[in-house]
Amino acid sequence: MKAVKLAFGLICLAIVASDIVAMSRWGEARGVYDDICYLRQAHLFQRFGIGGLDTNAVRDDDHYFEGKMKEIGFADWKDPIRWPCHNPMPSGKVVLQYPPGTGFLLALFPEGHQVAPLYIAASLILCVLALSGLVMARTLPSVISAGVLGALAVYLMINPAKASYSVPPTMALCAVAGLLTSLWLMRNKRSVLLVALIGLLLGVSVNFRLPNALLAAGYFLILGLPFLWTRSLATFVRGLAFGAGVLVGMAPTLAAQAINAGSALATTYGSADVVAPVFDLAVFGQYLRDMQFVLIVLAVGATAWLLAAGEEHARQAALLTVGNLAFNLGFFMTHPIFTHYYVVPITMLSLWTLSFARLLQPLEAREAAPVRRKSTNLGVLPR
After folding, report:
1. Of 59, 101, 241, 280, which is least packed with CB atoms within 10 Å of its CB?
2. May I ask which residue range the UniProt record assigns to the signal sequence (predicted)?
């Protein structure tokens, strides 16, 4: 088994090394609108500090964004109303539509060398967690599953993560949140501080992509339903701690929306981006033909397996992923726009959670036959 661990460890290291070589050669002028918009947010943070939350087009008085658009041959570079990724607000401002988190992370690195370090840092975090999973694995099946997940996660940092600068930090946070979620659920005594930290991380992820707010759906279910069942103070406090963590984590986005859109609850996205859900067979078909479908199958299959074969705490982790997958897949499968990374965050959060939940099971539970030991009651989820 040590040889298998070593083999998978070397595979993960080889993939991350290959990724780093490829990422170090990436340019920052691919001609993609999203790229230069995230870089504009980063530039604002580097110029104004926390004042960079204000993305009003008039703040481009140094012509940074205009210069970026000239580089990609954008015809209407002089007209802020025509700027990509910007929308007019009722106040008359023309502002960036994206939340500020991705731009903030890019701003931590020197201008002109921002993208590659962001991707490399996220890849290294994933590699460390992948190797940690291999170290924790104590049976051959768990070594293989941990190794495959680790190699897959690192591989995805090139494709499809390259499609958007918001994906790499989301991927890294999902992996860390998956580990912490398993640590929380696999204990008999559930820590309030730990669930608050998980909420904080999921809230922070909203600062990279607004749809990341859906990543918390399953958590609210397993924290809220037991409270309705038991009405105990302990379940209420855990739910309150998680909700407070989410709120604190997404505070930068709420502040940015207050500054740019006039209200913390108002969106900076245009009407064309805020659409009603609709089931479209064409969009559904695109998911079936995409790598994301493989991730969905893996996440659903791993959830079903852990529900059937896991011990009580592990089944509770699987119940959480059931709620999370249902909400997130339901949203994106009825979203009229398809991209190659929409369901990557929820599938990877689910897989990391399930993988670490399996690894943290007592050894005898992992070796036991897949027999249900005791029915899981939602009322006993938070202990």
Report:
1. 280
2. 1-17
Given 80, 96, 113, the domain boundary residue is: 113
- Reduce the DSSP state of residue 97 to 3 states and report it: coil
* Predicted TM-score (pTM) above 0.70: yes
Q: Do both 190 and 145 map to the same domain?
A: no
Of the pLDDT bands very low, low, confident and very high (cuts 50, 70, 90), residue 169 is: very high
The range of the structural domain enclosing residue 262 comes to 165-383
pLDDT in tens, 293-314: 999 999 999 999 999 987 888 9
Contact 256, 100 (CB under 8 A): yes
Nearest to 355 by CA among 308, 305, 294, 312: 305
216 and 85 in a single domain? The answer is no
Confidence of residue 38 (pLDDT cuts 50, 70, 90): very high
One domain, residues 13 and 144: yes
On the question of pLDDT at 352 being above 90, the answer is: yes
| 260 and 134 within one domain | no
Q: How far apart are CA 135 and CA 360, in angstroms?
A: 12
- Alpha helix stretches (DSSP H) within the chain: 2-23, 33-48, 64-71, 101-107, 115-136, 140-155, 167-185, 192-206, 217-230, 233-249, 251-261, 281-288, 291-309, 312-333, 344-360, 363-367
CB atoms within 10 A of CB 136: 16
Of the chain, the percentage scoring pLDDT greater than 90 comes to 75
Are residue 135 and residue 210 in the same domain, yes or no? Answer: no
Tokens encoding 63: 């012509």
The pLDDT value recorded for residue 382 is 39
Q: Which of 158, 192, 223 is the last residue of a domain?
A: 158
Tokens of 243: 């909700």
Report how many domains make up the chain. 3
DSSP string, 1-16: -HHHHHHHHHHHHHHH
Residue 239: CB atoms within 10 A of its CB come to: 21
Same domain, 11 and 52: no
